[in-house]
């Protein structure tokens, strides 16, 4: 994981060491939870389980899982419960990456510095692994171990479906594929990124609030926080695609330009895109004011998402 830094001009809500320690602890918790939820079997389907584990374990920032666990901690939710929600969203995120990397989609051979799942195994296994990760992610939320109150579990599932389906992540991927070689205006690029990337990051923050049975105002604030950092995260990705190396990214660099996609960088330039990301981070941080020092890591995280190098 890239060491979190906080810009010199930003309020020092939490130092980089505290954020790094928090992210590492939550990542370890989510990782061990995924490991326990995806046990290997002795059956002939074991290759599928191996591919699911390969796609989810052993790497990544765990940003989405971190958000679910850290937001839930604001409301005193036991970590065993919030880690299940974090594992669920990380599994769904992993499914999306497995499918995105396929030749029919983004056709990428690298993911997190390792061969993509379809390269490590084969295309059919990768498709099935993605399918199984998606269904497993909803199964986890439906189980009583996630929360004793069925109404909370239903709320988590409904918000998850909204964020990940045709009105969210999958719809955004469709728009992204349609956008290859086309010029999109800025508003269309905003919507594309809000759906493809932002919805799942927004949900991750929202899920922690749902799990913690937050008040409607608290849920709205945390949903808004997630929306803003989701947008900032994608702008940072656009900048990284244009400026970072494949070694830094752990995946192929320069693909946006090569495919002719409209991005914040192509429309605003690097400095303009960075300024927009900084504006969104300030909006995100402002939503956390009522939570005081309890939200110090979430405030620092907002700055981290635009300072990372992968």
Keywords, please?
Polyprenyl_synt; 14 helices; Prenyl_diphosphate_synthase; 310 residues; mainly alpha; two-stranded antiparallel sheet; Polyprenyl_synt_CS; Farnesyl Diphosphate Synthase; 1% strand; metal-binding; disordered N terminus
Write a short abstract of this structure.
With 310 residues, the chain is mainly alpha-helical. 68% of the residues lie in helices and 1% in strands.
Secondary-structure topology with pairs:
Elements: H1 16-37, H2 46-56, H3 63-73, H4 79-100, E1 110-111, E2 114-115, H5 117-120, H6 123-142, H7 150-164, H8 169-178, H9 186-211, H10 216-243, H11 246-249, H12 255-259, H13 264-286, H14 296-304
User: Which strands sit side by side, in order, in the main sheet?
Assistant: 1-2
Q: What is the 3D shape? A: globular
How many structural domains in the coordinates? 1
Radius of gyration computed on alpha carbons: 18 Å
CATH class: Mainly Alpha
SSE succession? HHHHEEHHHHHHHHHH
> What number is the mean pLDDT?
90
Specify the structural class: mainly alpha
Name of the CATH homologous superfamily: Farnesyl Diphosphate Synthase
Beta-strand percentage range: under 5%
Q: Output the number of helix runs.
A: 14
What would you call the quaternary organization?
A: single chain
The CATH topology corresponds to Farnesyl Diphosphate Synthase
Low-confidence stretches: 1-14
Percent helix, as a range, is 55-70%
Keywords: Isoprene biosynthesis, Magnesium, Metal-binding, Transferase
Organism: Acetobacter thailandicus
Family: Belongs to the FPP/GGPP synthase family.
InterPro entries: Isoprenoid_synthase_dom_sf, Polyprenyl_synt, Polyprenyl_synt_CS, Prenyl_diphosphate_synthase
